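Worked example

This section walks through a single chain of length 85. The input is the sequence exactly as stored; nothing has been trimmed or padded.
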Amino acid sequence: DKLDKIGTEKVKLILLEDCGLTNDQADEILLFIAIHGSNAQVLAALEGYAGRSEMFDQGLSELKAVTVNLAAFGVPEANFAVDLT
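Given that input, the structure is written out below as tokens.
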């Protein structure tokens, strides 16, 4: 939410100063939320994070299931988006 309002550099400062993250951790978060594209492109990009955390892997699996089921129910892809922001 703040990214659009205050910009990347200020969000990074918040992550560093208020959240106590390292520079690498803050950069990783900013790269993660910058993933954009079609639903298939976003899901493919998220695959690159698989295996880091059991909770992430479960969430990714559930997100894939949601997109598959929306399509199966006839919901056009133009009507939903996997948005990481």
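What to look for: The chain has a mean pLDDT of 95.
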